[in-house]
Amino acid sequence: MGYDIERFVGYVNEGLLCCICQGVLKDPLQAPCEHAFCASCIHGWLVYHSNCPEDRQTLNMSMLRPLYRYMRNDLNRLQLHCRNGERGCEMVCSLESVEQHERECEYGWISCTNTGCPVQVERRNLSGHLAACELRSQECPKGCGYTVFNSEDMQHNCIAELRSELVMLRVEMVYRMEKAAREMSSRLDSHRQHMVQKESLLQNEVVELKRQVFQMMSSVQSLIGAERLLHQELEQEKQELMELKKSLQDCRSTTADGNEKLTSLHSLTRLESVEKKTQGGDSHLKKVLHSSST
Asked: What start and end residues bound the annotated signal peptide (predicted)?
């Protein structure tokens, strides 16, 4: 809204008046049709209308522009009385500085700064009201540290207040301890479940490892038995070969040529049978090794 014309000193040019509120322009904006408005007035108008309030031409916010400089200069040169003139303020200010003055005017009404106090006084009388305000708060003069209101000064009991505070602190401490205990118990239960699961997994792994070790020991024992058997067979074949060799040497030295050939043929037959046994023993050992590895 614009400024009231009655507050101004002397004549106010009609070009400096808002076309909506008919007051002196405040934060002025101008339409393309050169009509001027207070910023708050034209914003409120365009919420419900889409034209100029004077000539009804199409108008929106994007079409508004700042007031001409010469008109702004005329506004700034205007003099007007403080709004608190009826209460005794005689200050006359320029338009651009009147708001700053009115925010600090000693005759202006302000609310009491004490919480809950509805009283409004002139700024110059605020200190006197605060000294006698019933809702004035201050620190206890007896040293307990509590903040007391002026109306409660006589009823204030330091011991009762401190006892009440102690009870509240104790209740709060018990609550926090119980909360911490519940959280700790929950964490312990979670860790306990995790450890039980991990122990079960480890037990299963131990059982599997024992089974594998048992299989390996069985395979090793089988290999040892097969090796012993093969060793015995090889020793026996070695002895047979030695006997065969000796018999061949004896036959060569004691028999005729025909008999020697027959004896040699017989000895070769025995030698082939020994080699077959040896090959059979090797294949048997390979089977044992293959079964133990699988």
From this structure: none
